[in-house]
C-alpha cells in the first residue's frame, strides 16, 4: 500500500492489542490517526475471479453490517473512464439503475484543461501522443435506483467502483403509493414500468448529500459552465491522500460519508476507510466467511 511520508505526528490512539492477523487479508494503516484505513491487495484490475468473488461476498456482508449496526445505506458510483469494456452492460442496465453523472475529484486537483490549439498541433505532427484521460475530468455515474448487490455484481472489479455509506435522509425516502393492487393489475402502465421505483428515484434526487458534496468539494467550480450543472462533486481517494491531504479535506470527506470503499488501481487494491472503530465487527465478518469456507486468494 502506497503511503506518503507526510504522516500526522501530534495525535495518537491508546496502544491497542495487535489484531493484524485477525484482520487478514485486510491490512490496517496503523500509523494513520485521522481515521481507520484498511487496504486489501489485488493481483490486477480487472480482478481475477477468485478475488472478485471473495470481495463481493465481503462487501455484501459489510453492507448488511453497516445497515443493521450503524444504520447506514450505500450509494454506488462508477467512474466514467472505466466504462469502455462495460459499455454494453452499462447501457443495458441504465433503465434499471438510473445512472446520473457528476464529478469526482482527487484532493488538491484541478480538472484537466481543454485541448488547446498548440496541443492539437503537437498531436497532429507527432510531437505529442494524445491521451484521452489527460483532457477528461474524473466524471462518474451515481446509480439513483437502489440495488446495491446487483450493481456491485454488475460493475465491481474493473477499478472504477466507489461506495459511500451514509446516514439516512428522510427527504430522499419516497412515500408508499396508495394504489390498490386491483388498480395496478388493471392498468398497463404498472406492468410496463416500475412506478414505485420511478417515484423512489425522483425522491433520491432530493438527497441532501448531493448539494453537500458540491459545497464541500466543488465550491470553486460553481462558475465554470462545464461543471455548473453537475449533480454532485465527490472526493476520489487513494491511500496517499489520507496521509498527505490537508486535514480539513479529510475532515470534509467524513462530513459527507461515514464509511468509504474504493477500488484503487493506484494502490493495486481496494480501500476501506471509516470514522468508526469497528474492528470487532470486521473481524466477526471475516471469521464468518472463513467458517463458511470462503478464503481470499492473494494471487
Structure description:
The protein is an alpha+beta fold and 299 residues long. The chain has a domain of 208 residues. The chain has 13 helices and nine strands. The chain has a nine-stranded mixed β-sheet with strand order 1-2-9-8-6-3-5-4-7, with helices on both faces. Strand 8 and strand 9 form a beta hairpin. The longest helix is centred in the N-terminal third of the chain and has 22 residues. It starts with 19 loop residues before the first helix and ends in an 8-residue tail after the last helix. The N terminus is likely disordered.
Order of strands side by side in the largest beta sheet? 1-2-9-8-6-3-5-4-7
Supply the number of helical segments: 13
Strand element count: 9
How helix-rich are the residues, as a percent range?
Answer: 25-40%
Going by helix content, strand content and strand pairing, the class is alpha+beta
- Major sheet characteristics: 9 strands, mixed
Averaging pLDDT over every residue, what do you get?
86
Low-confidence stretches: 2-14
User: End-to-end span in angstroms?
Assistant: 16 Å
Radius of gyration using CA atoms only = 21 Å
Order of helices and strands: HEEHEHEHHEHEHHHHEHHEEH
Shape by Cα distribution: globular
Percentage of residues in DSSP E strands: 15-25%
Keywords:
299 residues; alpha+beta; disordered N terminus; nine-stranded mixed sheet; single chain; globular
Helices and strands in order, then pairings?
Elements: H1 20-23, E1 27-28, E2 36-41, H2 49-70, E3 73-79, H3 87-97, E4 99-105, H4 117-124, H5 132-135, E5 139-143, H6 148-155, E6 161-166, H7 181-186, H8 189-192, H9 195-204, H10 208-217, E7 233-235, H11 239-244, H12 247-256, E8 259-264, E9 269-274, H13 279-291
Parallel strand pairs: 4-7
Antiparallel strand pairs: 1-2, 2-9, 3-5, 3-6, 4-5, 6-8, 8-9
Helix pairs in contact: 2-13
